[in-house]
Design goal:
Phosphatase 2c, domain 1, binds zinc ion, 2 domains, single chain, five-stranded antiparallel β-sheet, alpha+beta, Four Helix Bundle (Hemerythrin (Met), subunit A), 20% strand
């Protein structure tokens, strides 16, 4: 989606230069610091000369999320040295493991509710946000999508998760959680970044509250009837002062909610046709009686069958929440 804003890079670099000089006055002649100072000076020269952000070998632009993570990068992915490539692969592998550890446990079941999810990045890390946790008797579930992809988006996803977990633990009403999360996200990220997400709270009596920040409407499945729970708000962090409304749905035993990101609905096959919500509806209708993990896996299998080998282009999350019977 949107590109991050990169205008004050010259300022950022001269800030870094000041800090390096301070550090060097404490530890003079440190070879690593001196090397960094050289690198920063070279980057400042590239900014002044108008070649900043271009690969030194092919002169094509360096990938924006890599440049954001490392403003001193001089080579595009295709022109890294073997050592640089290995270091980058190790970093990504570690980031991927860290992100895996942030996911909720599979079959996170709370009194009266059963859950299942599928989470899969387009690359080693994902910009989708998928979470399940409880506060008292309430089950909280969140599925979202941060603008952009790759490492930069995955960092924002981790930031969003920490924000939500902290705000929910304060016991705030759902709309206030969303409003505060939106403000914090807006204030602490680049202006071009935002997230769409659905946050839900399911209680013991079967009542489920939803706040939807511009995300694909969750599907409500009652028997073989499937309907959409409509969106109620703008994406999170688009503006610093946003308000959200809560919609409520009562789930009977056996009723199911299915949430997903556009990595499902906007997946394309070889001919460029989108998977679409209608096809998803049909799969869900057919599989409505299956256990949550089965239903999730039916959706994943159908998506793979539809794609028939077309490479995945986006991060994918599918989550199912089911109200259990009163036995
Ligand atoms: Zn290059």
């Amino acid at each position: 989606m949107a590109e991050p804003m990169e205008s004050p890079i010259g300022e950022q670099l001269s800030d870094r230069r000041d800090k390096l000089e301070q550090a060097l006055s404490a530890i003079p002649n440190d070879t690593k610091l001196l090397q960094l100072l050289d690198d920063v000076d070279a980057a400042i020269e590239r900014v002044n000369g108008g070649t900043y952000g271009l690969c030194e070998v092919c002169h094509d632009p360096i990938e924006p999320d890599r440049l954001m993570a490392d403003p001193l990068a001089c080579f595009c992915l295709d022109h890294l040295t073997a050592d640089q490539r290995r270091a980058l692969e190790e970093d990504l592998e570690l980031a991927s493991k860290n992100q895996g550890a942030l996911l909720p446990k599979q079959s996170f079941d709370l009194a009266g509710w059963a859950t299942a999810y599928h989470y899969e990045g387009a690359g080693p890390v994902s910009g989708d946000y998928c979470d399940l946790f409880s506060l008292g008797d309430d089950l909280y579930f969140i599925v979202g999508d941060v603008s952009g992809k790759g490492v930069a988006a995955s960092m924002l996803m981790a930031h969003l998760q920490a924000t939500f977990r902290a705000l929910v633990s304060l016991g705030l009403p759902l709309d206030e959680v969303m409003e505060r999360a939106s403000r914090m996200f807006c204030e602490s990220t680049l202006p071009t970044h935002f997230a769409t997400l659905v946050c839900g709270k399911a209680g013991l009596t079967g009542e489920v509250e939803f706040c939807n920040a511009g995300h694909n409407p969750p599907l409500l499945v009652r028997g073989s009837k499937v309907e959409e729970i409509e969106a109620t708000g703008l994406p999170l962090g688009l503006f610093c002062e946003e308000s959200f409304t809560v919609s409520k749905v009562r789930l009977n035993p056996g009723d199911t909610v299915l949430l997903y990101t556009d990595g499902l609905s906007e997946s394309v096959d070889k001919s460029g046709t989108q998977y679409g919500v209608e096809r998803l509806n049909r799969v869900v209708k057919k599989g409505h009686g299956e256990a949550p993990e089965e239903l999730v896996s039916l959706c994943v299998k159908d998506l793979y069958a539809f794609r028939a080998g077309t490479p995945k282009a986006d991060d994918l999350t599918i989550m199912v929440i089911r109200r259990l019977g009163d036995d």
